[in-house]
TrEMBL record:
GO terms for molecular function: alpha-L-fucosidase activity. It comes from the Eukaryota. PANTHER family: ALPHA-L-FUCOSIDASE 2 (PTHR31084:SF0). Keywords: Signal. Residues 1-23 form the signal peptide. It comes from Cephalotrichum gorgonifer. The keyword Membrane does not apply. Residues 741-810 form the Alpha fucosidase A-like C-terminal domain. The keyword Signal applies. This is Glycosyl hydrolase family 95 N-terminal domain-containing protein. Residues 47-278 form the Glycosyl hydrolase family 95 N-terminal domain. Residues 295-711 form the Glycosyl hydrolase family 95 catalytic domain.
Amino acid sequence: MSSLSYAVTAFLAATQFFALAEAVQLSQPNSSSNPWRIWDDEAGGSDTFAEYYPVGNGRIGIMLSGNPSTESIRINENSFWSGSFLSRVNPDGLSTVREMQEAISDGRYKEAEELGLQGYTGTPLSTRHYDKMGNLQLVQILPGGETANYERWLGVDDGVAGAYFSSGNVTYQREYLASYPDDIVAIHLTANQPGSINLRVRLDRGSDLNRYQGYSEPANGHSTVMGGQSPDANPLQWAAGARIASSGGKVTTLGDTVRCENADEATVYFQSWTSYRKSDPKEAVISDLSAVSKSFDEIRAAHVADYQEYAGRMSLNLGDSTSSQRSLKTSTRMNNTTPDNFDPELASLFFQLGRYLFIASSRPESGDNDLSLPPNLQGIWNDDYSPMWGSKYTVNINLQMNYWSSLVTGLSDLRTPLNNLLKTMNGRGAVVAADMYNCSGTVTHHNTDIWGDSAPQDNYTPGTFWPMGATWMITHVIEHYRFTGDKDMLADMFPTLKAVAQFALNFLTEHKGYMVTNPSSSPENTFLVPGGSGGESAAVSPGPTIDNELLWEIFSFIPEAQDVLGIEDEAFAKRVSNMREKLPPLRLNQYGGIAEWMEDFEEANPGNGHMSHLVPLYPLHHITSANQTLFKAAITSLEHRLENGGGPCGWPRVWTIALAGRMFLPDIAHSRLATQMGECSWGRSMLNMGGTAPFQIDGSLGVPAAMIESLLQSHENVLPLADNSTALQAAYTGDKGKLPLIRLLPSLPKTWSANGGGSAKGLRARSGFVVDLSWDSDGTLTAASLTSEAGNSAYVTLGKTPVGGANNGTAIQNSGDGASGVFIHLDGDKGSVHTITLA
Ligand SMILES: *[C@@H]1O[C@H](CO)[C@@H](O)[C@H](O)[C@H]1NC(C)=O
Ligand SMILES: *[C@@H]1O[C@H](CO)[C@@H](O)[C@H](O)[C@H]1NC(C)=O
Ligand SMILES: *[C@@H]1O[C@H](CO)[C@@H](O)[C@H](O)[C@H]1NC(C)=O
Ligand SMILES: *[C@@H]1O[C@H](CO)[C@@H](O)[C@H](O)[C@H]1NC(C)=O
Ligand SMILES: *[C@@H]1O[C@H](CO)[C@@H](O)[C@H](O)[C@H]1NC(C)=O
Ligand SMILES: *[C@@H]1O[C@H](CO)[C@@H](O)[C@H](O)[C@H]1NC(C)=O
Ligand SMILES: *[C@@H]1O[C@H](CO)[C@@H](O)[C@H](O)[C@H]1NC(C)=O
């Protein structure tokens, strides 16, 4: 952890900080000696945005190059979208849906798509898009000559980024943070000689663009503020401002630039608001900047404490890196990472970066009116005024993956922004359900924006025709409840869950004896049209596996939820249960894999990046090793995709790491993690490459969950066959009396133990257990400690012994009650701690 020692006492007088002119002691930060720092010996280039360091407080995101003399800090505010809500339901939507249903039932898929491209698509075609707010231009006037001793870093241990360099005879340091408790960005500039800080700060929104910009002006002698509004009937107003506060020296404004001359040290504060949260964003920005009264040290201390409160909830150790690995800068270590060259401490840093980014981009707001928003495709770090895919919320895997890690790594209390969006979608989606489908309940297609726009998105055939976005997203509420047992959260979200189910009850139509979604598709995948000419492919079909399985899950859970919440609605429970029985079952396809569609189509794109047909294995859990037929077929499906180039860089690869863990395929999990690091990430920032976008946040945020799947699982459920029995039967969502099964080290890759063993502390398992576990260099469990936080019981086992099989796995024992066996029951008294070792 970096801590500067200041020989200064600062006090606030009027709007300036004055201090005794004494030199700050600065020394080379030696980031290589801190395993929790991403670091570099050069600043980011002017157009290498994805190699900058991301900093955020949930609402505001900044991206840093650490350039010594002219730093163009990219600024984002998470409510800054291209405009206000757009009502986009196609006026011919309902009649087109009816025609498409008929054509699809008849196998006239291309015809259905052709109609849909005019009558189903949104009018206009797209939701609002996320926008970059602009740049904070930070010019630091240096003594001249070469800059030397350069180092920049991002600390995932303290949530602070920095840069260090010397120029002339002066050594400089910057620290950058985005504070949640003080709701402001602060950049602190110091030098080891008094009077050496000379700065110019101004804001722009593209030097030659000024899009939606109405003003850029000085304020209060120490600040600059720019802003404007979207060109709408109901415009979104925005403002961004920066202030310099210095210790010694002089702060003035000239034009819309803030100048700081000959200061001993200085802090640049940045604030931004839009009319999504503030009625007068400009006034809010100016008054927030003026009101800053804490010193940087106080702001920093509060920020670090707040960040560490979340970041410190869990730790991961995958063994020791070699001293030569440790001596290298991050980009070289990333580049050196291959399946045969593992760097354990770097892998742990890669893991914790996912949690860092989540804490920096998903923060609930305090007070009654929580307007917090979840991270979009780029989190809150976008550098483009026309970002790839609009940097929206894509809900056919991407927003899902953004939240995968939060439950299992102890960050469930940071999920409110997601639940807020689901509630917003519920309201908007009810209008789409009624107008486009003549259905009750709510529907969302494959994208949404901050206004919950739920109409179809784009005219991209494999993506557009999919009405199950809200259905997949609502399973996050179910999982949230499973991990935490939080009944208040479940009660709050139940109306949304119910509305999603109500839509399905209305929308499903009969096809070949089953009740199915139609029109629908298996997200972004295509098949060869049976009898079609010349390899003709299509995307739409009735009842794709993903839809059936998402609905199976929510229909199964609703009666459970009603029981938990004391909702007496037997009729509704019966309706969903009856409908569940009419869904098409899981089946095998011609390759012996899990069928992706109801018909056993030939795949047009067997290496597709989406693993939609494996959703019932991960993230859901209808397919487990208790049913070896389905489990082996799922493995065949994964292998089939991989053999055909599936699981390419980014979120698809991260998904395969999770799938491999859940399938007990440790070598695949390991090698895909290694290539995600070595080939699919920006070496300097460790951020996930985004295919055609510079980067995409999902592939970074999903990493912790994907890796943990090899260390700890809790998605299976069991029914004891007798009260005292360890003979267990597999159970699934909706079964009464089931208990979760916690698997310790189900699929530990050899490389994760070979460098001195390892440990994980503070993992969360379903039913409210906090799990610490450690293993030796052979990968053998040393000990595990399971603490019941929710007062629920569970079973625990070591390794991958299937439920309902021969029970011939490794016996473990509970030092508390002496119980031993392959599967042992954990009594879940609240606060009880169970220590598990080999028997
Ligand atoms: C970095 O290492 C140098 C030389 O070993 C030492 O003088 C300096 O104090 C170290 N800096 C920090 C911040 O630990
Ligand atoms: C650095 O210090 C040396 C000796 O103190 C002096 O001769 C030189 O002019 C200084 N250089 C700068 C750029 O201030
Ligand atoms: C990455 O490693 C490859 C060899 O593995 C090497 O050719 C290349 O120069 C390295 N790139 C960087 C940026 O270190
Ligand atoms: C909409 O559904 C209702 C029954 O819920 C039905 O009475 C009505 O005719 C339908 N309208 C159209 C246009 O299909
Ligand atoms: C496995 O699942 C398939 C498909 O649902 C089912 O037909 C079969 O009976 C199941 N096998 C076991 C052992 O439960
Ligand atoms: C478990 O309970 C059954 C009756 O349900 C009894 O016959 C059996 O002896 C018990 N076994 C143990 C190990 O207590
Ligand atoms: C456990 O039993 C299964 C099924 O009989 C068998 O395939 C497996 O090899 C056995 N495992 C061990 C460790 O004996």
